[in-house]
Design goal:
Layout: H1 11-23, H2 28-34, H3 39-42, E1 46-47, E2 55-56, H4 67-72, H5 81-115, H6 127-137, H7 146-162, H8 176-185, H9 192-202, H10 211-241, E3 247-251, E4 261-266, H11 270-279, H12 283-291, E5 297-302, H13 303-313, E6 317-319, H14 324-329, E7 335-338, H15 346-351, E8 357-360, E9 371-372, H16 380-394, E10 409-413, H17 417-425, H18 433-440, E11 446-450, H19 462-473, E12 476-480, H20 482-490, H21 498-502, H22 505-514, E13 519-521, H23 528-541, E14 553-557, H24 563-574, E15 578-581, H25 591-605, E16 609-611, H26 615-633, H27 646-652
Parallel strand pairs: 4-5, 4-7, 5-6, 7-8, 8-9, 11-12, 11-14, 12-13, 14-15, 15-16
Antiparallel strand pairs: 1-2, 3-10
Helix pairs in contact: 5-7, 5-9, 5-10, 5-24, 6-7, 6-10, 9-10, 10-23, 10-24, 11-13, 11-16, 19-26
């Protein structure tokens, strides 16, 4: 256990690591020990895009590189370390953007099928957001039915993928000054698919070989994610499944139940989870579960699908990325139902140690050895019932080796842009004004988005917790999504009571007045677009500058591991946000390129990257940036509160 303690700060995780060792089940923490990262690949100094390589161009270790060494440090084709590193970096952006964009496209296909009446079990649940989106897109409302409006919206948004010229329509949601910056720098995305394809073309052997040019297209591609695919996905999910509102829930492996059929939905596309949430509680299904000896059906989430069903149904979360195998290790899991993104192939191998059935459901994502149950919008109810029955049938096959950690934590989730607007201003005066006012008066120092994954190369959840505690202690309000949000929820920081315990006096006062936690759960990783919308709302409310880059705000991903994280980070940087990553950085093999990302990029976009593995130091860097923005806005000094009498008011006029 002493050795295991270096792997995670979460007690449920530690308990299951120990059980996996006893059971002889190989898990991610074991593989991270035996599989050491390639040092050349880790610093971005390996190129394998043609068969003349792979070409390795590492920096000399322990000393400075001479000019002659730098001149010769090239691949077979002559590509410099900067070109190689930039290609690797922007290819990560392209892959991350493709993942989120494809997610958004899937949601649009479901949306269109729902509008046409071809998706049994699905309906438009948020009429207000439907009509708001229609107005944003210039779709006629009048006396038309919601389904007619939805069909037009789906056609307009699907065109954003095919579009070859012009600009993505959601760029107009950004502050006007930000739009001008994108046009000045030539990075306003023309079409979602076009930018991804062009990025892959530019990084082919012998095409774009200037790192600044590559990074420019990288910024453009990432904006097609944040202000394109991700934003589309989030809006459509809200319309179909309901915009999130504050909801109580529970998190950690202790949410599994020994006497019930346990099903975990894992991945990123919530339409299957939505249907399972309904089907699993049908009287017929519950009766069938009883016939197999179970007292009920317990549906829980893993990774970002968990965030989606938590926000809309209050369903419990079993854990974040590095806990997916550990849910199987409990011996109490009948089925793990997966779709796309962040799913370890090793879950199928772990399942062999127990009785769990691994069910893949998406035509884009198969796992060798797993069972496949195809799910799409046309057979949603049928597929969901089949999956639940398969899980129920597996309940009698439990091997008796069941150990569920008695560890779970309460949380409050569902803080969408609309929710924040309502909580701050009320139903009739929904507004960001109170938030801006409390930043201006200094009760709230600033805002930070702490997002991203878990990474087995660092202690599970620790960097998230240390960073966020440092931020809220210094009166920085924290917004979170994805696995990062789950880390803080497990630590008990996503309940209103956490404000008095962990936050600085000013932030605590605001949180207690409004009744919110100091750390706000905003959804899945695709929902980082909510943070962009919130930042824009702060700008438009006034008093904090004319652009996102003027805000006393920063972003971070202290345990990132996914290509999606790089795409997310880049669209925040290109939107004007100072963004700090931890764990490792993919361009350290090119000091010149890293210097551009960490310094020169700010002159173009008003935002820049930073890298700091120590989460407390990283938090302090973010606080220093927030303080610098406060000073630039002239709100860095406390002001005495003065009650004006009528004579003093006349003098003002």
């Amino acid at each position: 256990m002493a050795e295991a303690a270096k792997k995670s700060i979460d007690q449920a995780t530690l308990e299951m690591i120990e059980k996996a060792a006893k059971d002889g089940c190989n898990i991610v923490f074991d593989r991270a020990e035996t599989m050491k990262p390639c040092p050349i690949g880790a610093e971005g100094s390996c190129c394998r895009i043609c068969s003349m390589g792979p070409c390795r161009v590492p920096l000399p270790k322990g000393r400075e590189e001479t000019p002659e060494e730098k001149r010769k440090r090239r691949g077979v084709c002559g590509a410099t370390a900067e070109t190689i590193s930039a290609r690797n970096f922007v290819r990560m952006i392209a892959a991350g953007t493709a993942a989120h964009a494809d997610h958004g496209r899937t949601m649009l296909e479901l949306f269109k099928a729902t509008a046409e009446g071809k998706a049994e079990g699905f309906a438009i649940k948020d009429e207000q957001k439907l009509l708001q989106l229609a107005m944003d897109l210039g779709v006629k409302i009048g006396e038309r039915a919601n389904n007619e409006i939805a069909l037009d919206i789906s056609n307009v948004l699907m065109e954003q993928y095919r579009q070859q010229e012009g600009e993505l329509i959601f760029l107009k949601r950004a502050p006007l000054k930000r739009q001008e910056i994108w046009r000045r720098e030539g990075v306003a995305p023309r079409g979602i698919d076009r930018e991804v394809v062009e990025m892959m073309h530019r990084t082919h052997m012998g095409v774009d070989q200037d790192y600044e040019s590559l990074l420019q297209q990288g910024a453009r591609t990432s904006l097609a994610d944040g202000w394109g695919g991700s934003m589309i996905g989030t809006d459509i999910q809200d319309i179909l499944f309901g915009a999130p509102a504050p909801v109580a829930g529970q998190i950690n492996l202790g949410v599994l139940k020994a006497d019930q059929v346990n099903i975990i939905v894992h991945g990123h596309e919530p339409q299957l989870a939505e249907m399972l949430a309904v089907v699993s509680q049908e009287p017929e299904m519950l009766k069938y579960a009883e016939s197999k000896g179970a007292k009920g059906i317990n549906l829980a989430g893993m990774c970002c699908t968990a965030n989606e069903v938590l926000m809309r149904h209050g369903l419990p979360i079993a854990g974040n990325f590095l806990q997916q195998e550990l849910a199987i290790v409990t011996g109490a899991l009948e089925a793990m139902v997966v779709d796309v993104q962040c799913i370890m192939q090793a879950i199928e191998e772990a399942a062999k140690c127990y009785h769990t059935r691994i069910l893949t459901t998406n035509p884009r994502a198969h796992i060798r050895g797993a069972e496949h149950v195809e799910f799409d919008e046309h057979n949603a109810v049928e597929a969901a019932r089949k999956i639940v029955r398969m899980a129920i049938d597996n309940f009698p096959n439990r091997k008796g080796n069941v150990q569920i950690p008695d560890i779970k934590t309460d949380l409050v989730a569902g803080f969408s842009h609309e929710t924040i607007n309502y909580l701050m201003g009320g139903m009739f005066r929904a507004s960001y004004r109170p938030l801006n006012d409390n930043i201006i008066n200094g009760r709230i120092r600033g805002v930070a988005g702490v997002v991203g994954c878990n990474n087995a190369r660092t202690t599970h959840d620790e960097a998230h917790l240390l960073m966020v505690k440092e931020l809220i202690k210094n009166d920085v309000l924290v917004l979170q999504t994805g696995c990062a949000a789950m880390a803080l929820a497990k630590a008990g920081l996503m309940v209103p009571e956490a404000a008095s315990k962990y936050a600085g006096a000013g932030l605590a006062e605001v949180c207690e007045t409004v009744g919110i936690p100091p750390v706000l759960h905003m959804g899945a990783c695709v929902d980082n677009s909510r943070i962009l919308v919130a930042a824009t709302a702060m700008v438009k409310e006034g008093g904090l500058g004319d652009d996102i880059s003027d805000l006393p705000a920063a972003g971070a991903a202290p345990e990132w591991m996914s290509e999606k994280a790089i795409a997310i980070g880049q669209y925040f940087v290109a939107s004007g946000v100072y963004t700090v990553f931890g764990t490792t950085w993919p361009t350290t093999g090119s000091p010149e390129l890293s210097e551009f990302l960490f310094k020169d990029m700010e002159t173009k976009y008003g935002g820049k990257w930073a890298f700091e593995p120590d989460p407390v130091k990283a938090a302090q860097m973010m606080i220093a940036h927030i303080d610098a923005k406060r000073k630039a806005l002239g709100i860095d000094k406390s002001r005495e509160r003065v009650l004006y009498d009528m004579a003093m008011r006349r003098e003002l006029g």
